[in-house]
Amino acid sequence: MYGPGDVRVEERAAPRLVEPTDAIIRVSAACVCGSDLWPYRGIEEMQWPAPMGHEYAGIVEEVGDEVTTVEPGQFVVGSFWATDNTCEICRAGYHSACVDRVPMGALGAQADRLRVPLADGTLVATPDIPPDDLVASLLSASDVLGTGWFGAVAAEAGPGKTVAVVGDGAVGLLAVLAAEQLGAERIIAMSRHASRQRLAREFGATDIVEQRGDAGVAAIKELTNGLGAHSVVEAVGTQESMMQAIHATRPGGHVGFVGVAHGVALDGMDLFWSLAHVHGGPAPVRRFLPELIDLIWNRQIDPGKVFDLELPLDEAATGYRAMDQRDAIKVLLRP
Ligand SMILES: [Zn+2]
After folding, report:
1. From the CB of residue 102, how many other CB atoms can be counted at a distance below 10 Å?
2. Cα 286 to middle of ligand 1, angstroms
3. How far is the CA of 150 from the centre of ligand 1 (A)?
4. Distances from the Cα of 128 to the Cαs of 43, 134, 241, 294, 324, in angstroms?
5. Is 297:127 a contact under the CB 8 Å cutoff?
6. Which H or E run includes 273?
7. pLDDT, position 69
8. Is the domain 23-143+284-334 a CATH 3.40.50.720 member?
9. How far is the centre of ligand 1, averaged over its atoms, from the C-alpha of 184 (Å)?
10. d(CA 181, ligand 1 centre) in Å
11. Which member of 9, 23, 95, 187 lies 3.0 to 4.6 Å from 83 by CB, making a disulfide possible if both were Cys?
């Protein structure tokens, strides 16, 4: 990305092993993230030009001398943070704050080849080379599914719970899928777009709320005996969506926020009286990868459905435009 709205596909130096813990992968599929739209829209400053992309799945081509858990020829999925998977923070399940973390976005996964640092702690191999129809779902585990999953886990979605999801982007839709998998009793998707509502229902939503802001909160309360939802996933990252999430949560309930918060300010008294647990941040996707790959491999979930536009990598600029204008939920790029 050369600046807001300016995406170009060009030749860069081929990645090579730098550290003995690195792997080089041939990317089978990459994609455009909702978070890539913040710099695209000029809301987030970057050092231009910036390599883009942090979601990836592909085949290992080469590994450094110290890599022991993956080998050339294997199909792998990794998180959008490269992590050691051994430090205290990783062992507690919070890989996205790993003491050795490296942001994959800085390396640029929207590419045909990619260097993955800390390969042992970052990459998870699938049991075999996947059939082509599983690649999109496996790619989704790299961020968007893992992030929606973390949102649902942070919101403590589970049996007997009513879960509301604020945001109908790919992460919000996959938080619906996660809530369903985690056994939620009732799942309320907040969306005003017919195609996204349909996908939310396919993923397990039992109710749809079209209103936003205070009207959206009132609609959630109406569906929950005036109490609010037990669990609310916030998957947008704006002031309105955050307040909608906190106010739609019942006292004692849990908010899981995974939208990258831009310009969000919380009022202390508002938070004080909410009696809500508020937990979120960049998803520790690596924690969930083995479980998510297993569910996908056994065809128990089909998160790849969020990709409603597939383009060759050369047409990445078109993909960004489609997501920016909400013509596409999520764009898959094939190198
Ligand atoms: Zn770590």
Report:
1. 18
2. 10
3. 17
4. 41, 12, 40, 12, 35
5. yes
6. helix 268-274
7. 97
8. no
9. 31
10. 27
11. 95
Q: Is the pTM of this model over 0.85?
A: yes
In words, the CATH class of domain 151-280 is alpha beta
Give the Å distance between the CA of 145 and the centre of ligand 1.
21
Cα 94 to middle of ligand 1, angstroms: 8
Q: How far is the CA of 97 from the centre of ligand 1 (A)?
A: 7
pLDDT digits (tens, 9 = 90+) for 225-237: 999 999 999 999 9
> What is the CA(40)–ligand 1 centre distance, in A?
30
In the numeric block, which tokens belong to residue 330?
């999520």
Distance 257 CA to ligand 1 centre (A): 22
Q: Is the pLDDT of residue 25 over 90?
A: yes
Q: How far apart are CA 333 and CA 139, in angstroms?
A: 10
Pairing relationship of beta strands 331-334 and 23-31 according to DSSP bridges: antiparallel
Exposed e or buried b per residue across 251-283, where buried means at least 16 C-beta atoms within 10 angstroms of its C-beta: eebbbbbbbbbeebeeeeeeeeebebebebebb
